[in-house]
Amino acid sequence: MRGALAQFQRQFRLVLPALLVGGAVCLPDPALGQADGEDAVTFARDVAPILQAKCQSCHRPGNVAPMSLLTYEDARPWATRMADRVSKRIMPPWPLDVTVGIQEFKNSRALSDEEIQTIVQWAETGTPLGDPADLPPAIEWPDWSDSWSFASHFGRPPDLILPSPVYHVPAEGLDQWPRHETFVEGLDEPRWIRAVEMRPGSPETRYVYHHANPSLTLPTDTDQTMGAGQLVQSAAGADGFIFPESTGRLIVPGSKIAWPIHYFPQGQAVDAFLEVGLWFYPKDEDPRFVTAGEVHLDASMGTMTGASQIRLQGRSPVEEQLRGSQPDLVIPPHSLGMTRGVTVLDRNIRVHSIRGHLHLRGKNQIVEAVYPDGTWEVINKLNWDHAWATAFLYEDDAMPLMPKGTVLIVTSVWDNTVNNPHNPDPTQWVVRGDRSVDEMGHVRLGVTYLSDEEFEEMVREREAQQIAGADS
């Protein structure tokens, strides 16, 4: 077993740190700073392809970003700010430490060091347009109503779209937590879900939407282990999940969706709603594995006992949910806080996604694994940005395989000081709670539970892939 596990029990890995540029970049007058020579960085040849690949999905008219970056005329006035934000890795939003842990993701928005240098150099050398003939063809971006992140992956829009009821979010006030229930409409036969995506139903909803955790209840005469439980748990910056090959969950006519949603007023009244899009397997194709969806890894500190704990929660095809209570959390004024929780896996799992969750004082979260043979690995360090609760979707050949007996460690760190630009008031004691000004700390893993035979087969397949890759 030790030899079979060695191929995926990666050691602590480091890559070169991202290029950091201190302070704002000075933007020269274009009349004075047009760079010359074949090596000069230009918008047409060098910058525009980066913006198309990593920025324009949000930075275009009618979408959620505050300005458009579709053309040279759009982008040039923002060159200084672009250079500053990309050099600090604030944009594109990819709040993950790129120097440690697994870095192979299907939905990566992260810029490479070379791409960052390209944008910075373009800003520093006068923002030259270059030869317009070098411009890549413009992308025909869909309207918001047709804009689904996973549509490009599947080559089609969702097979079924499920809207939440409309809820009026006032312009001013406290956090809003509407609770709705709806029946699934537009489904006339059982189907296996291949992917699920949740999005704000309108651009205006994006600004008041914090998170939502819709859950699915199957009819009472249906095996609940095939798909009941959390349908998708999403927040701003988290689109949803593309399940691994031959892995899915069931939805049948008569199913019900519960919609626990968190909105927050942002100065303008909004009639807000969410949409869940589902992509199905072909009607004649049943997946081999049933995914449990996301499971919680909660780590917090109890005020009564001072003990930390972790909770692994999720529905297995063969076992009921493992549940545990989450204690309180207390962070004193002008201080950093840290809690750590530990659990031992009682079953084999394959992890297809990872997502953290903190609030305004959040700083980072670290997920580590100690395998049964003693090998230790940092799975990922999630830097926290309250505006982007990103779900990171592992590439198929990078999905962690964790055998029964693996020790999972989750560490959450909070910054309740003036150094945290998102901190509303560092003089306050902060406790655990659902409001954005309160705190919590948990990580969600998207998992599939595996029998011993299935796990061993996946290990062998992973070994064969690695050998083939090394020989190619």
What does the secondary structure layout of this molecule look like, with pairings?
Blueprint: H1 2-5, H2 30-33, H3 43-54, H4 72-75, H5 79-87, H6 113-124, H7 151-154, E1 160-163, E2 167-169, E3 179-183, E4 191-200, H8 203-208, E5 209-212, E6 215-217, E7 229-230, E8 234-235, E9 240-242, E10 247-251, E11 256-263, E12 270-272, E13 274-280, E14 289-290, E15 293-298, E16 300-301, E17 308-309, E18 312-313, E19 330-331, E20 335-344, E21 348-357, E22 362-370, E23 376-383, E24 392-393, E25 401-402, E26 407-416, E27 430-431, E28 442-450, H9 452-471
Parallel strand pairs: 10-14
Antiparallel strand pairs: 1-13, 2-12, 3-11, 4-9, 4-10, 4-13, 5-8, 5-11, 6-7, 6-11, 15-18, 15-28, 16-17, 19-27, 20-26, 21-24, 21-25, 21-28, 22-23, 22-26
Structure description:
With 472 residues, this protein is α+β, with helices and mostly antiparallel strands. 16% of the residues lie in helices and 29% in strands. It is built from 9 helices and 28 strands. Strands 1, 4, 9, 10, 13 and 14 form a 6-stranded mixed beta sheet that branches. Strands 3, 5, 6, 7, 8 and 11 form a 6-stranded antiparallel beta sheet that branches. Helix 3 crosses helix 6 and helix 5 runs antiparallel to helix 6. The two termini are 27 Å apart. Mean pLDDT is 82; it is low at 1-35 and 300-326.
Output the keywords.
6-stranded mixed beta sheet; single chain; disordered N terminus; alpha+beta; 29% strand; 472 residues; 28 strands; 6-stranded antiparallel beta sheet; 9 helices
